Amino acid sequence: MENRAAWIVGAGDGTGGAIARRFARAGFATCVTRRNADKLRPLVDDITSGGGRACAIVCDARKEDEVSASVERIEGEIAPIDVFVFNVGANVPSGVLDETPRKYFKIWEMACFGGFLTAREVAKRMVSRGRGTMLFTGATASLRGAANFAAFAGAKHGLRALAQSMARELGPKGIHVSHVIIDGAIDTAFIRDNAPAVYATKEQGGILDPEHIAENYWHLHAQPRDAWTFEMDLRPWSERW
Fold it and tell me: Whole-angstrom Cα distance, residue 117 to residue 39?
């Protein structure tokens, strides 16, 4: 894998970081992206200290010029992007009666429009090579909109539709596009600090382990092309459907 890169857009402390570490262990040059360089440094140090290759790519996925420059840098200086993961969050609650146009638009920009910009730019390169894996992180909101989450649900529904369309268009060109629905709480500091009752179920397997989520992303990438999965949903055994 020395000549292949995995680009993880939205490489946070939970799922995104775990995905980056998993692909680094497989030998990929792992390019991790957030808007803040300081927040990327611990992840890059963790991967490199373990013998992997990692590079911090600071980019705002909502800005076309930054996205184009980031892809140019990875492809020109590091390695061809063989795996692309869009893992940007934006899970911000707000009642629809109090929602503002600015906030609604910002959430859509982050969780949906950013997915389009980054995926389109990578797809141009993958199609020319006739191979590649594109993985989009969804949520419960990808399937149903909860009360007080209208903006987030709209963005996640849109991202799922984008992934569906891209899978149908790019699959025949050799590109595996998949959408992963994470239906449940994830083992993160945010859940630990803000939902202690939920976090207390961790020992019983009641919340998702980011490392186990990452293993499923690797599985999707490793699938033979005669049996590709488009959509996978992951949830703890105790989570209600």
Answer: 22
